[in-house]
Write a structure and sequence with these properties.
This protein has 10 helices and 12 strands. It is α/β, with parallel strands linked by helices and 312 residues long.
């Protein structure tokens, strides 16, 4: 089988970054050799059948409900696991990265040959995206921060930045408190419900602040209006979303159509991207970037980029 390793040039295509930035970030943070192989005809057919079976016949949890219990339980498991342990990129790995070796890459399925291939590629993509959009921010607020993995990355990448994390589950704040203690960084933590934009008034968000979501808005489904209004009221310098954007899939591609059906069955984020584009056309916001990132897990792609700021 044809074996390959992802190169800086591959990340340039995936993230839309520059070759110099890709080499600099990948050299600085030294990810493992991200090796994968192409699937043979029979293996590809088997994977496609398995994916179709899950989408067509399996009961999947849907998102968009105002019930934090699943996240409270999940992040509490991570918080408990961290007691007496060092906080590292691996120890705060979210449980939804299950180590499935087959991933979506530039329009086809591939099989990762290194442990945690999807997770490690995702970390590299985040670092590249963060570097492009956040390197000048004096304050960075992540909403829906979960285990704090992205704040840990940013603490390493932007030592000058003030960091704040918000989530609707208390164990997430407990993790951030421990992260602040271990890293010596003043990482703030707040309870915040993204569905209702309640629990924190956002007073620390101002015209010098960058707001970030990573795999968080996907959980809002179509209920993102209150959250968007909250962002527009606070007026940050930048809103950066690394999320599954169903509207960026190719309607003429069977490969993409499969991901769309999975996305819609889970009730993931919908309507937000065209809403932002519509408001940009009216001059109400400034659209800075909208890019599909052709990488994801077995079922869909969750690293696409949407960056904007409210007009002043």
């Amino acid at each position: 089988m044809d074996e390959r390793a992802l190169t800086p040039e591959d990340f340039v295509r995936l993230a839309g970054t520059t070759p110099d930035a890709a080499r600099r970030i990948l050299d600085r943070h030294a990810p493992p050799a991200l090796r994968y192989r192409e699937l043979g005809i029979d293996e590809r057919a088997r994977i496609e059948a398995e994916v179709e079976d899950v989408i067509g016949n399996c009961s999947l949890r849907t998102v968009g409900g105002d019930d934090p219990r699943v996240w409270d339980e999940g992040w509490r498991e991570v918080a408990d696991r961290l007691r007496g342990r060092s906080i590292t990129i691996e120890s705060v790995r979210p449980q939804y990265f299950r180590g499935e070796p087959v991933c979506r890459l530039e329009g086809r399925y591939v099989r990762g040959l290194t442990d945690g291939f999807e997770y490690d590629v995702g970390l590299a993509l985040r670092r590249l995206i963060f570097e492009e959009f956040l390197s000048e921010a004096s304050t960075i607020v992540e909403l829906g921060c979960g285990t704090g993995i992205n704040l840990l990355l940013m603490a390493e990448q932007f030592p000058q930045a003030r960091l704040i994390g918000c989530d609707w589950a208390q164990p997430s704040c407990d993790i951030l408190d421990e992260m602040a203690r271990q890293t010596g960084r003043p990482i703030g933590a707040h309870i915040f419900n993204m569905l209702t934009a309640s629990g924190w008034d956002g007073a620390e968000i101002d015209a010098r602040t960058a707001v970030v979501t990573v795999h968080a808005m996907e959980q809002l489904g179509s209920r993102w209006q209150a959250f968007t209004d909250f962002l527009c009221r606070r007026g940050p310098a930048l809103c950066l979303h690394i999320e599954p954007l169903v509207e960026l899939y190719d309607a003429d591609s069977d490969f993409d159509e499969c991901a769309c059906r999975y996305h819609r069955k889970r009730n993931y984020l919908a309507g937000f991207y065209p809403y932002i584009v519509g408001r940009a056309r009216k001059g109400e916001i400034t659209l800075l970037a909208a890019r599909r990132v052709h990488f994801g897990g077995l079922y869909h792609e969750a690293y696409s980029i949407l960056a904007w700021r409210p007009s002043r």
